[in-house]
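Appendix B, record 7
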Amino acid sequence: MKISVLYAPFIIAFLLFTRAHGALAAETDTDKILKALDGICGDSWCEGAFDFHFQQVVMKPNKNETQIMFRMTQQYPVRLDWVVGQSFLAQINQRFYDVSCILPGYSTYDSIMQSEYRLHKEVYTALTQCIDSLEGRLMLVAKP
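Structure tokens (predicted):
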């Protein structure tokens, strides 16, 4: 009898911990937005000169904006020959840029997402314009 009374607090703590851990493992709104961005990517932005990896979404209700952070990677195969007589070559395979787009006027999940898998058209359009602008700038910077 004493043993079961002694273990009761540990059992209760364990149950609370596992319940809390399960809640932490649930998909957040920002996870859903990232998943939607990745889903769109294959049919839109990712068909160009850059590959995209969407990393973080930060909704800022106090500023009424959302910041979407991502990495743009450009395949850049260049072979660099060194001074004649040296026994090695260098090669640059890709360049990457950590960038973000700030979307004013969208600061909540409901203002960004039309459904669980789809952005509102206005958000998609604003993000596309930002990405197009970034691509144009980075193409100028990335010229060998």
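Remarks on this record: Strands lie at 50-60, 65-81, 89-104, 113-115, 118-119. The two ends are 78 Å apart (CA to CA).
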